[in-house]
Design a protein that fits this description.
Length: 480
Amino acid sequence: MRLLFATSEAAPLIKTGGLGDVSAALPAALHGMGVDVRILLPGYPQVLKALPFLQPAADFPLLPGFPPARLLSGAMPDGVPLWVIDCPELYRRGGGPYQDEHGQDWLDNAHRFGLLSKIAAVLGSADSPLDWKPDVLHCSDWQTGLAPAYLHFAPDAAPCVMTIHNLAFQGIFPLHTALELGLPGECLQPEGVEYYGNLSFLKAGLHYASHITTVSPFYAEEIQTDALGFNMQGLLAHRRGVLSGILNGIDTTEWNPAADPNLVQTYDAANIKGKSANKRELQRYMGLYADPDVPLLGLVSRFTYQKGLDLVLEIAPQLVEMPAQLVLLGSGEAGMQSKVLELSHRYSGQVGAYVGFDERLSHMIEAGADIFLMPSRFEPCGLNQMYSQRYGTPPVVHATGGLIDTVVDCNAVTLKRGEATGFVFDSADAPGLLGAVRRAVAAYRNKKTWRALQRNGMAKDFGWSRSAVAYRDIYSRLVR
């Protein structure tokens, strides 16, 4: 089985969120199962700097609508084969993969990710300049959404899988941009790439893909509803026969409390005493009072409305009064960042905050916190709720998407069955979150209950093996 995996980011080379993690971990898992997988990635400066020994593989001097580009060959740090698109005019610039240094979207993003989609499609068709041709092309999110459209009009095209990581991001541009990117005029209609008078990269992918997946079973159902369909629910319901929800996995080597180099003391389910040492270190590092008995709540997230950070800010005074401590790590909307920092100053010693991204601190929070907060209004899959269970840190989550697929609410029945792993609340509002936190703190006070919760969560298998098999089965069906 030959698979081309097209993506706009892949950790550790370039990452802005969960897409980067998945785009590294899933190909690695498939590679380990014997799939001949190649990752296709834009040549951002960060990628080229990290991989100085890339070799030329092919040239693309005359793709309609795009500047000249070259395909470079190399490998990911874990050994998975990698192709990098070197196009200085589109990719060699400061800032991040989608925005400039000031947080503004690049004005030519349609062309930047149109090129990624176009080269993915060329490599998946008879027009490829390479001897290696994929049996299946796998695309991820809107940045690769035009690839299925290009393939639809290409000779001897491979079947294509389109994965939705977050339906809220759809790659919307003026409709005439489609012609600039070399798409035929016949696809500029509702039964094509047109979306409310514009071009939508994601809509194109969902319309033309051979199969659609998303990153959890429950989210696959949610996106077919008015509440979370983001105006794509009609198309997704129409294509539900080729829509699958496959839960993301996590990197169980990187996220392993028994061997995590970021921790002051490692631990496992059989001997969890080391967790208390990590709590002490987290309290010290974040300037909190060194109290082993007060419950410490952790949050690692983008600071946005989607992630429910405003709900945490609203109930923060009640949390402090419980008493409980709170540690927050993340970045996002400027107003929320300011409120987070203001909160940490107002409740110095009880609330600690770091605005930005710190990989080591994220591991310290997972290990050092007693309870993990994840009140997302919607969450296609989520990874931190799985990390926290693996680290013996029961999560408090809103009943949505992958959160409800991975966290079992703690009650008398689930405790008796040995299934409870956290606390789930139904109403995405401050009272709902506060009620769940109160339940979690009450359980924390009961050592027997809390130890059972920790054991249950740490025993769960959140690795990629099961999910990789599910993806491989889809590829095999498409090839047959």
